[in-house]
Amino acid sequence: MASAVTVASPVPDDVLGLAFGPGAGTVGVVLAAIAVGVVLEGPVVTVVGGSLAGAGLLDWWAVWLVALAADVVSDTVFYLIGRGGRRPRVAPLLLRLGLTARRREALRAKVGQNLGQVVVGAKLVDLGAIPAFLAIGLAGVGFPRFLAWTSGVAAVRVAVLVGIGVWVGGRFASELADRPWIIVAVGAGTGLVLMAGRALWMRAAASRKENACAS
Length: 215
Description:
Blueprint: H1 12-20, H2 24-40, H3 42-54, H4 60-83, H5 91-96, H6 101-113, H7 115-124, H8 129-138, H9 143-172, H10 182-214
């Protein structure tokens, strides 16, 4: 989710250590960095982690589990903030996090009609994820129901991103001998391209919606 890391989580020095001496400590540091990076900038860091797995430096399932756990924990934090959103001290925080009165009413209506649609939309569009999970909590959705939806959708989303990274890492694995940092660079570039494509799609969809309302 939830949203930015300008440097992909596994920094070049970590990749060098992973390439030439993949000890348990180095692997643990890189996985921890991926977890933190996923919370701050999910798609890019998840693709980078997948690219390291594709290059044979990490186990793909370890990357998937770490990225999934970080993703779900991040969503849960905003859900819990939303649950306390009626308290005077918490209400202003919701506004700062993007849950305006207009968004709140629209999202609460959608949550009541189709929680799954709201969760899927939030996971596909990171920019709107925080207000969505705040609204889900504010609407009083039970935690088990919320967790079932967010973990299920996140599992698929993370698997796709890791899969893309594995493909990228496999394509450039032979380059590691001379340039270990190339996996991070290519993985980050691929993640940024995915984010840019999604942003363009969102802008086009919003434009079509505005034109339809105007007509």
